[in-house]
Amino acid sequence: MATIEKRITKAGVKYRARVRVEGNLIQTATFSSKTLAREWAAKTETEMRDQKHMPNMNARNHTFSELLVLYKRHIEDKGLRSAKNLITQLDEWDKFIGTTKLYSLTPTVISSALDQIAKIQYGKRPKSPATLNRYLAALSCALAYGVKTQGWLDTNPVTRVEHKRENKGRTRFLSDAERDRLLNAAKQSKNKELYTIIVLAISTGARRGEILSLKWANVNLDSGWAVLEHTKNGEMRGLPLWGPALDLLRQLYEKRKSDIWVFPNDKNSGPCEIKRSWATVVAKAGLRDFRFHDLRHTCASYLAMNGASPNEIADVLGHKTLSMVKRYAHLSNAHKSSVVASMNAKIFGGAE
To answer: Which CATH architecture best describes the domain 176-340?
Structure first.
């Protein structure tokens, strides 16, 4: 049953739609016009009734919070490097849909909860569309676990939720001059390992967490190869080590402070922290709007400019699809143009 209530607010006349279907949570939303309120109410009531039609009995008996308890245990047991972020995001969902029965999680309910999550700010900046999509991805993972592993759901409702339109990704990378300034500043840092860490990031494209969590047991200095056990997507990945990066690791091994961690903290209880020393070095190098993750973009950009294909770049960075490396296509095209220009100049004469 749907009802529309007219409300007078400081912002003007508003219409609140209220939908109730037996066995479901009551859903409400506010709109600027009665027509919009009616359309939303009709759509929501239909969705709620469709979901109620012969639902999975497990979905009727279990809430999202109950599923979340099991899923948290599952990802912690797997040792995913992204587990902490996933749990943080899922805890936000739990605040708004925790008591909701799984069969009542319609796309409308999820979208409404996402709008509430978007309003939560922990800093000056609101959550970006990309961040909200990561929240949806986290929820999708949990519900997919409910479908495939627990059998508590027949389908994953997140697949029918419209994602936010994201801005184009950053392509910030170091110019030759910026790279030289950064490396020179790193050599003078009080953190003696920071220079090696930066060289590794530029030469391999590995993320900060992947580099800092490296263990000597996973580094083969003879073959020039390292294995990342815990990556963002949960799969192991190999890192080829060449030139200065390999030389620096060999030197570091000779003077190693730990037999476990490549970059240990002072107590040798885990990886070191480089946040402060990194900020100091970036400031001394005079770099603007530059983050550690941009060293990964730098590696990818250098690969593109040296003729690496999108497939090759994706393989080095550990991406499963090519969507993330499309941002470097223009750099690869520029390289191709210069090669063609050089070839034509040698054959037909003229400036390269």
So the answer is: Orthogonal Bundle (1.10)
